[in-house]
Amino acid sequence: MQPVHSYIVSAKLPDKISKLKELAYNYWWCWNYHGKELFSRVNPVIWEEVNHNPVLLLNKLRQEQLQELSAQSDFTSFVDYVHSKFVKYMESDAWYNGINGTNHGRIAYFSTEYGINESFPNYSGGLGVLSGDHLKSSSDLGLPLMGIGLLYQQGYFRQRMTQNGWQNEYYHYNDFHSMPLILMRDGAGLPLVVDVDLPKGKAYIQIWKLQIGKIPLYLLDTNFELNKLDEYRDITDQLYGGTRETRIQQEIVLGIGGMRALNAMNIEPEVFHINEGHAAFALIERTRYLMQKFNFDFSSAKQIVKSTSIFTTHTPVPAGNEVFKPDMMDVYFNNYIKTLGITKEEFMVYGQIGSYNPSNEFSMTILGLKMTSFQNGVSKLHGVVARKMWHSLWDQFPEDEVPIISITNGVHTLTWVAREFAELYDRYLTPRWKTDTDNQDIWDSIDLIPSEEIWREKQRRRVRLVLFARKYLQQRQKSFLTPEQVSKINQYLDPDALTIGFARRFATYKRATLIFRDMERLSAILKNSEKPVQMIIAGKAHPHDTMGKEVIQSIIQRVKNYGLDKHVVFLEDYDLVVARLMVKGCDIWLNTPVRPMEASGTSGMKAALNGTVNLSILDGWWDEGFTGDNGFAIGHGEEYENSEEQEIIESGELYELLEQAIVPAFYERTDFGKLSEKWVTYMKNSIKSNAGRFSTTRMLKEYSNYFYIPALKNFNDFTSNNAENALLLKQWKDKIRSEWRFVEILNVSMLEEDEYFVGKPIRISTKIKMRNLSPEDIAVQVYYGTVNPHGEMTETHFQTLELIRNENNEFDFEGIYLCPDTGQQGFTIRVIPTHKLLVNSSEMFLCTWARI
């Protein structure tokens, strides 16, 4: 039965506690212990029932309960205290204002998912949690940033396990009116609506705002009555759900709709940051907008977009790099392309490598790389992998000069640190660790914490984790357990046993089964009565990933077959609550991906912050985080061609580390048997070496210094005087492209030949011929290094040569470089285009090399 009218009912708070509403509508509370405590004190039972949703908590209270709270002087005083902290935070000056100078402007951060808190299920895993941490640290540091994403009616799927270990999916509908969301409205008080053109007509989008500290997050929603087609209402139904049609529709809504939503709110960000390729259409729509604003053609407007936009690629896994078939692109963009004033071929080539090919798919990652001048991978190793992976885009340049740099991911410290550890840090490191999180000098003082104290707090966290796991199994997973198992649930897990945590997405390359390869050997490790070991496992497989589901099932069945139920538990429906308890309570954090498929990974960073020691393949962040004394590495960074051989070798190393190093160290207790000094040393070294380096404080400072601030300067340079520099750069690029084929390197010579030694000046001369280009249009460089047995140069460097003379469009360049090393050395000459407005020298993908 449908209602004739509907309306929204919310709690009416008494004046003395009215500040609760303001606090409830800002997620600042979720990384402030007093904020969390405040809402828990309102009603601890309901607080857990509503999964820590403060708006729903207040809505569920009866009016007389609210009145009772307002009459409690201790509670009202606590409300005032927490609110005063909130106001002070919101009004405080921050790091960004002190370093940015005159480059003022706003940054639009686009991501397809955001993991802010468990009460806002708008994430699936690591990418979303990273996006959420990005916003939180932006707030802490005072960045003028806003988030743009999609608001999913059902979010990501919920996981329910059968007794035989098979994952089933179900979806929970989110009530946006019972969440800390505000529907954006126009001047007349009506919902603000924008639209995008899709094949069956317009899809309408309404805009909600979520506040994360100082940062607004704008979320786009198609599930409302203005969309008459169910198909269009369902666009924002599920995260990573639906068909290929759903996916391209979501990415059009996020990218094109997101840009239009900003315009509708009269927000014109100067800088765009595209977090993974899902939102890359925003770069095209922004170009279209600037075409209209400055009356430019597509190519001229693109100069502004390219020089002020950032693209972050997150994975080498093909499934994470979205592609669409040409016929689908034609259906969705045929009319849109006409508004850009370019041809279909010119449009499609932005998503392809090389020249237009009608049979090649359109890559969202390539679009992001081609439409931006600032690009990065998310760890040092991933930077290497990404440069190799996308080298064909810059095939005229050496692989190490592909302009994809590395900015290693981090975690938001205050979100992920255990309260017990935070109090230790306050006491022994001073509270400065909360604000100067990336200051290594602060973390170097970790040895001041007495071993007994840090050991005791980890014990407490492990006990809490074990009790939580038992209760979770008993209450949430009854269908997963047999009646006999339920009756013995208090025998599951040992609060004093060495506890290994493994929690992540069950993609096959993450190899959750590596530790279960030799069950006899694993059983002996786990069942050792004198030195017991146990595992807690959690994670989901994508609904369409049958192989990932089979991995989960095989683990559960092996555990049952070998009678390890009390030693290994699987917690279903992995979420941020389970994640926080595990990274804080486990002793070992296990990670076993196939190198180099793990671009970064952040769960191990969260674990390290809490004294949980990493045991991992040298992949992603751990490749740069491992120091030899702060955890354990499986292997030495080898990469294998034979996967079976790799499984045998690396599983063997894993067991050996457990048997010979990890278990003995954990149980090597002092004379009084209270603690293991050796283990505490691992814990302290893990915290000391990782807490600051792998924080989003450090990460956001790098994004600001390397990308945001230069991009803001570029915006000012490119848009002043009616964007004349954008037009000039476009015209210069057109000239370069038309003339580049006439650039020739006529000869290369050494001006003197003699005995060579390290540090000897090597004088180089070359003659360059051009038609209509001037020496100011090019840079002539000597490119030199050691020659390997294959005749290729390694350990290379380059030096720019100087113009000596010009005769009849033939230009002589000379220069000196110092002989860098012994052995066979070599050099060559190259010519690249150069202009003061280019962000990097490889931006035009052009380079001419001397021929042999």
Layout of secondary structure:
Blueprint: H1 19-24, H2 33-42, H3 44-49, H4 54-60, H5 63-70, H6 73-91, H7 95-99, E1 107-110, H8 126-141, E2 145-150, E3 158-161, E4 167-170, E5 181-183, E6 193-198, E7 201-212, E8 215-221, H9 230-233, H10 244-264, E9 271-275, H11 281-294, H12 298-307, E10 309-312, E11 323-324, H13 326-340, H14 344-348, E12 362-363, H15 364-370, E13 374-377, H16 380-389, E14 404-406, H17 413-416, H18 419-429, H19 440-443, H20 451-476, H21 483-487, E15 498-503, H22 519-526, E16 533-538, H23 546-561, E17 568-571, H24 576-585, E18 588-591, H25 603-609, E19 613-617, H26 622-625, E20 631-634, H27 643-666, H28 677-690, H29 696-739, E21 744-750, E22 761-769, E23 778-787, E24 793-800, E25 802-807, E26 810-818, E27 825-833, E28 848-849
Parallel strand pairs: 1-2, 1-9, 2-8, 9-10, 10-13, 13-14, 15-16, 15-18, 16-17, 18-19, 19-20
Antiparallel strand pairs: 3-4, 5-7, 6-7, 7-8, 11-12, 21-22, 22-26, 23-24, 23-27, 25-26, 27-28
Helix pairs in contact: 2-6, 8-29, 10-11, 11-12, 12-29, 20-24, 24-25
CATH superfamily annotation of the largest domain: Glycogen Phosphorylase B
CATH class term of the largest domain: Alpha Beta
Q: What number is the mean pLDDT?
A: 95
Helix content: 25-40%
Q: Give the N-to-C terminal Cα separation.
A: 81 Å
Low-confidence stretches: none
CATH architecture assignment name of the largest domain: 3-Layer(aba) Sandwich
Beta-strand content = 15-25%
